[in-house]
């Protein structure tokens, strides 16, 4: 299934990523950010229903100067003590949260429409690619905050440090050889009010021709990928 997911991503198509039964127990609908259109956003908000975010590679986040939101709140708390109470130092399901800035691209109007969010997401993908390729970029000239698209900053050591959808999607992007900026949205169940079950997510994938892949399989494949990279560097 890893091969199917990689093939889909290389074609700009979506995949479904399930994390773990022992973590969130959620499936995210994931697209390569550079290929997101207004129809992609429509599909995420209607078929998935969760929060539409963009995960980016940690190296890109550093090059673009994007902090974690918790860092911003920590800094603000020195001037506004109430902010200290707002900081989510450790969510119930993980060691830390990956939220960075919430942005709109300056080419948007309200920023919330399918067309506007698609533009913002694509532009995030484009600036991540430029940053990682050594291009001259200034994130703050092109984007404004607060906005309607949350950026998720992957952990510095990716899956060795954190195994959330943020890191899983970026690891998968690396293996696919595409720009490591991924739009993702949690799949929710309108009847139960909970996350869509793993089985229902699998069924959705089969019905819509979208590869379903588990976090444990991404971790196994990514370890092999890293070993292969290290081996080739030595040759």
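-> sequence recovered:
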């Amino acid at each position: 299934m890893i091969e199917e997911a990689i093939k889909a991503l290389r074609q700009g198509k979506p995949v479904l990523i399930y994390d773990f039964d022992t973590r969130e127990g959620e499936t995210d609908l994931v697209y390569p950010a550079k290929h997101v259109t207004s129809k992609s956003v429509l599909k995420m908000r209607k078929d998935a229903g969760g929060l539409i975010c963009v995960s980016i590679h940690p190296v890109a986040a550093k090059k673009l100067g994007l902090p974690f939101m918790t860092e911003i709140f920590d800094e603000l708390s020195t001037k506004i003590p109430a902010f200290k109470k707002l900081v989510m130092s450790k969510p119930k399901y993980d060691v830390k949260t990956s939220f960075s800035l919430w942005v709109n691209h300056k080419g948007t109007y309200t920023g919330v429409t399918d067309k506007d969010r698609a533009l913002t997401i694509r532009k995030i993908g484009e600036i991540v690619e430029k940053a990682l390729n050594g291009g001259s970029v200034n994130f703050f000239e092109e984007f404004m905050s607060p906005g309607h698209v949350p950026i998720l900053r992957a952990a510095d050591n990716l899956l060795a440090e954190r195994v959330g959808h943020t890191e899983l999607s970026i690891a998968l992007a690396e293996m696919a050889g595409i720009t490591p900026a991924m739009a993702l949205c949690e799949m929710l169940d309108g009847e139960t009010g909970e996350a869509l079950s793993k089985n229902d997510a699998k069924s959705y994938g089969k019905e819509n021709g979208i590869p379903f892949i588990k976090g444990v399989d991404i971790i196994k494949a990514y370890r092999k990928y890293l070993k292969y990279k290290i081996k080739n560097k030595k040759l």
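The longest strand covers residues 143-153.
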